[in-house]
Structures are given as C-alpha cells and as structure tokens.
Amino acid sequence: MYWGCFRIKKLSFHAFVALAVLVVIVLQLIGDISHSKIAPQVQYGVLNLKAWNFERDGSVTLNGKWEFNWNELRTPEMFAAGSDQHYVSVPKLWNQVELNGVPLSGAGYASYRIQIFKNPSEVLLGLWMPGTFSSYNIWINGKLYIKEGVVANNAEEAVPSFRNRLIMIPAPKEKLDIVIQVANFAHHKGGISVAPEIGTVNQMTRKSKLETAKDSLIFGCLLIIGLYQFGMFMGRRREKFTFFFGLLCIAIAVRMLTLGDVMLMYWTSWYRWTGVIRLDYCLMTIAVMAGVSFVHYLFKEETLQKYYYTLIGFGFVFLLITLTLSPLFFTSILIMYQIYIVFAVVFSIIVTVRAIQSQRTGATITLLGFIIFAVLIFNDILYYQGIAPIRDLAPFGLVVCVFMQSIMLSRRISKAMGDVESLYYELRELNAGLETRIEHRTSELVRMNESLESKNEELERMERSRRHLLSNISHDLRTPMTLIRGYLEALYDDVIVEPDEQKKYMKLMLNKVNSLNHLIEDLFELSKLEARQVNVEMVDVRLERFISHIEEQYELELRARGLLFACYNLTYRDAPPVSLNLRMDLDRMTQVFDNIIYNAVKFTPTGGKISIRFQYVVSKSCIHISINDTGVGIDAEDLPYIFDRFYKRDKSRNSAVGGSGLGLSIAKEIVELHHGRIWAQSAYGQGSTFHIELPVYDL
User: Fold this and answer.
1) Which of 288, 491, 555, 674 is most buried by its number of CB atoms within 10 A?
2) How far apart, in Å, do the first and last CA atoms of the chain sit?
C-alpha cells in the first residue's frame, strides 16, 4: 500500500497531520491568552470579583499587580498595620523585576499580598497554587494554610521545595486577604513564575487532577514506549537507534515526575528538592544526548560525525556540572542548557534533511516529527524565559514525534515484508526440490566429516605414538648403550685381561642387551596400543570363568614365594540374578594383572598378602576390581605419576628392582582399550590398592 493515495493537493497525509497538530497548539495558545484577557485582573493588590460567577464564568487566574515587599517576610498583621506599598506583576520572576530602578536578584525573600472582593454567596472556594521558586507560605484571612518548604531570611535556615498545591478555602465573607511569603536561596530564579488560580472547589480539584492526569498519562505512555523500544533492541541489537529512542522516551518520562506536582517526592518521601532539581537537569541532558544518538544511528551514513561527538562531549560536561556543582550555579546557566538543546535539534534536522536527499525510507516522516518537537521545545524555552504563556509542551511534542517514528517504522516493516513476500514467491519455485538435495548432500557431508575425523584421530594417535617412541628410545637407551660401550672399550684396550673378569663383563653386557630387547618390545607394544594398531580379539567371558582364570594363574606361584593370595567374588551383593558377562581380550587383560601383581610381589615382604575383590556397581553397570597388597606402598608425591611412561619409584636407572617403567603405562592403555579405567590408592608403609572398572553385559 502506498501513502500517496492519501495526498491532499501538495501536502502528504503526514504533513496534514503535522499541520493539524500545530493548529491545535496555536488554538490552545490563543484560547489561553484570550481567557486571561476576559478574566478580571488584579489592580494594585485588589481584585474585584463581585460580579463574577465562578460556576458560570469559570475560574480566575490571579494575574496583575500584587502588593510586594522585597527582603521582608511580612505577616497579615504587618500588612494590616500599613507601610510603604510597592507593586509587582504576577506572574514574574524577581530576576525580571526592577524596584526603584534597581534590578532584583533571583536570591532573596519577599512578601506578596492580594485582596479579593467576591460575591458573599460563594462560601467555599479552591485556590490552586503552582510551584514557586523555591519555598513559600500562604495565609488566607490571617490563617496559615500552606507551608511548602521552609521560608527564612537566610540560606542556612531556608529549605527549598517546589510543588503544586490545592487549598480549600472557607469563604463566608465577601473579602479574601491572601498573603504569600516566598524565599529562594537555592535556585537562580526566584519568585512566582506561574500565577495562582481561584475558583470553585470542583473547578480547582478538576484542574489539579487534570494536571496530575496529564503528567501521569505522558509518563505512562513514554515509559511503555521506551520499554518497548528496549525490547526491540534486545531482539535486534544491530539497530542501536531503538535503544537510544527508548532511552530518550524514558528520560522524558521520568523527568515528568520532577515537574508540576513533583510526583517523585510523593512516591519517595526521602527524596529532597536538591536531588529533584539535579535529576531534572540530568534527565534533560540525557534526553538530548539520546536524541542526537538516535538520529546518528538511524541515518548513520548521513550523520555528521564530528558534530555528533562534539554534542555528546558537551552533554557529558553538562552532566558533570549538574552532578558536582550547586543548584544555584547550574540553574544560573540554564540558557547554556537551552542553547545546547537548540544545537541538538538543528543537528537532528540537518541530518534528517540529508537523509531525505538520500531517499532514506521514513526520513520525511521523521523530519516532520522533529519539526513539531522542535516547535514545542522552543515554546518551553520561551516559557522559562518568561515569554510564552504555556509550559511543558515538549512532552506532547515527543508523543507526536514518537507517533511519527512509529509510522516510519511501520513503513520500513511494510516495505521489508513486501520485499520478503516477493522474494518468497520467487524462491519457492527454485527451492521446490532443494530441500531433498540439501538433505542428501548434508548426509554425505556428515559421513565424510565423520570419516575424516576418525582418520584424523587415528593419524594424531600414530603421530603421538611415533614421537613418544623416539623420545623414549633415546631417553632409555642412552645409559645401557654407554655402559656397553665402556665395557667394550675396556676389553679392546686390554684393561681387563683376566679370563674370569672378561666373562663377567661379557655377562653384564649380555644382560644389558637382553634388557634393551625387552625395553624395545615394551616400547613397540605401548606405541601400538596408543595408536590402536594392536590386534585385539574381544570375546565374551563369564565373570566366574575370569575369576577362576586369575586364581589359577597366580595362586600357586605366589604361595611358593611365601605370600598369601585370595580372590573374593562379592558381586552377589548387588548384581542381578543373572550371569555377568565381560567382553575382553583375555591375554591382554592377563597382561594387565601380570604387571600389577608382579609389581606388588617386588615390594611385598615374605608373609605379606595380595588379595583381589570383584564387586558389581549398579549405578555404572560395571565390575569394580580392586587389587590390594600389604607392601611398602607408594609415596604421595609419586602416586599421580605411576602410570606415566618411564616413571619409577627409584629414579636410578640401575635399580635392582626397577624395570623399564612401562608396565603400568601398558596396563592403562589395555584397560582403556576395553572401555574401562584404572587408578591407584596408596600411602607409604600401608600397602597399595589398584582399582579397575570394566563394563559388563548381560548374557
């Protein structure tokens, strides 16, 4: 669908919407001004409302000239006593007032008075008092009704506050005498910036509720939009502009809590005026930074990088000023904040215009939203300079801007969906048989990948085995070869001439050669096991048969050596009532037991005991074999390394009891080849226990 069908002459639909919003705002301004002209004005501290009917004619804003006493905190009694009278226009800040030709300062204190003559039939009225810089007391007919903050004649005792208040006034008489004391030592601007308003209780209650409802509505709308934008950012983090647009909405939303009724101080009673004013200025700065960042990331190719980073830098400077310096200082440079906002708006409009020139989707709508937002921001700036009559229209402008951005996003999404739909119909025909071909090709690739992985693992094992073999051969052959060479040189040089001595040395060399042969055989055996190149004949062996085999293999020999030997089958405790089956190469597994048991024989003294226990582990469905001896045990420092190649308790290569240091390494490889695991427990002087776990299979 194209928006062009909604064009009205040369104005697009969006331009028409923007124009309508501007017309509404202008009408509101005109209505407010005309209303203030129709209502009676305060003349030299007196307002005559005897002919005014609140029910028929509406409420009255107390604009005009009030009695005024500068640097005096006068009570109703002091006004009644009479004194020199001065008059000042309300609403008007002290910074804009000259008294006897001398301009006043924003810091100080003063008293205001107004006398209202009304129809005696109006017996109950309401007075709506907007926030005043920066604390005030209100007396009506000599009675103190409101104390907002603490009014004092010095900065040490004065406590600032700034909230709208509603007063119910019993008014049976025809005259209301209203006295307002105002003190300000915390804000750059002091005085009554918005005139109070009087009317019936229903009118003033309605006005107060409308103010609160307006702020709450804007707060809720912007908060929801901001959270929605954050959700979009979490789903698609590439589009950073959604994050900054959400931050902009939430900053303005929370700022609404610091304006008007200052709902933040109602929600959090511990929050004081100084914190509120700091938060207000911080949020204003954050909103500007988020706004320019939104434009920067929305139209990144058209953005002005140098000016963008300059604006962000100034934003951090303003934040630092707001957080570290006193409110009296940073409120005095409000014009600098406002100039910063103007530059940010100009930057956003320029970037958006460039995006329109580049024909970026939604750039025109975005520009219209920014223009409306900019107009209302300028209104707020003029209001705080005492020129415009209506305050805080920027949030409404932001709502309109958000609406425009929503249209822009919907157009983007519609365009994207249209492109996707057309591509869908084009690709559907091309992809008709593609899924089958892809599945077939994928299955082939998976098989090829599995085959390559298997080959790669096999090559890695072979390479590892080759490196280990060369390293270990060079490591363990050097010492015996050196000895043999020494013996041969001694014989060759006739150092040894006695026949008996010659035979003795020849026998030593023969023993060394035999040891080298055994070592080489073990090395090749271990290398083949690691590379998984050994021939393993796996057969099913009943557990009972395996236990009998172990008993027959070692019982007689160990008893002949003066050692006690026993096998215990404890599987009846946990095993199911069926025969347990082990899948193994019986010769290889016997080799494992040879290495462990004959090692135990070496280190177990005569009269000692070697026992083997077989238990069934239900949770792992495996047989746990523990081989225990009562020998000298293994040091704690040696225990972690006993399955490493060439590791021996006695570090000397000429140990009388030391072998090649490969037996336990070979045992470990064989057990792992059977999908089991092996480990040891020991303490020096307390014997050793080797544990083996092997999987079992039901027959």
Assistant:
1) 288
2) 73
pLDDT tens by residue, 141-168: 989 999 988 999 998 999 988 788 888 9
Q: What tokens does 263 get?
A: 């709902």
Q: Which two tokens stand for residue 503?
A: 């035979």
Residues sharing a CB contact under 8 Å with residue 196, sequence separation 6 or more, in sequence order: 61, 62, 127, 128, 129, 130
The token pair at 599 is: 């090692």
Contact 584, 538 (CB under 8 A): yes
Closest CA to 599 of 537, 542, 661, 651: 661
Give DSSP secondary structure letters for 544-584.
HHHHHHHHHHHHHHHHHTT-EEEEEE-GGGTS-SS-EEEEE
Sequence-distant (≥ 6) Cβ neighbours of residue 97 within 8 angstroms? 88, 103, 104, 191
- DSSP SS3 for 428: helix
Q: How far is CA 185 from the centre of its chain?
A: 41
* Cα 597 to Cα 258: distance, rounded to the nearest angstrom: 85
**Average of per-residue pLDDT across 666-691:** 87
Which of 188, 458, 209 is CA-nearest to residue 329? 188
User: Token pair of 382, please?
Assistant: 């003029």
- Alpha-carbon gap, residue 472 to 646, rounded angstroms: 8
Note the pTM of the prediction, 2 decimals.
0.54
Count of CB atoms within 10 A of residue 445's CB? Answer: 10
Q: Are 683 and 636 in contact (CB under 8 A)?
A: yes
Between CA 664 and CA 676 the distance in angstroms is 15
> Among residues 206, 51, 34, 205, which one has the least CA distance to residue 116?
51
- C-alpha span between 353 and 359 (Å, rounded): 10
pLDDT in tens, 35-86: 444 788 999 899 998 888 888 888 899 999 999 999 999 988 888 777 677 8
Q: State how far the alpha carbon of 508 is from the alpha carbons of 329, 485, 500, 515, 584, in Å.
A: 100, 12, 13, 11, 40
What DSSP letter does each residue of 606-618 carry, written as one string?
TT-EEEEEEEEET
Rounded distance between C-alpha atoms, residue 574 and residue 621, angstroms: 10
For residue 289, what pLDDT band results from cuts at 50, 70 and 90? very high
Mean pLDDT estimate for the chain: 79
Q: How far is the CA of 437 from the CAs of 362, 421, 447, 573, in angstroms?
A: 41, 24, 15, 56
As given in the structure block, the two tokens for residue 527 are 């290398």
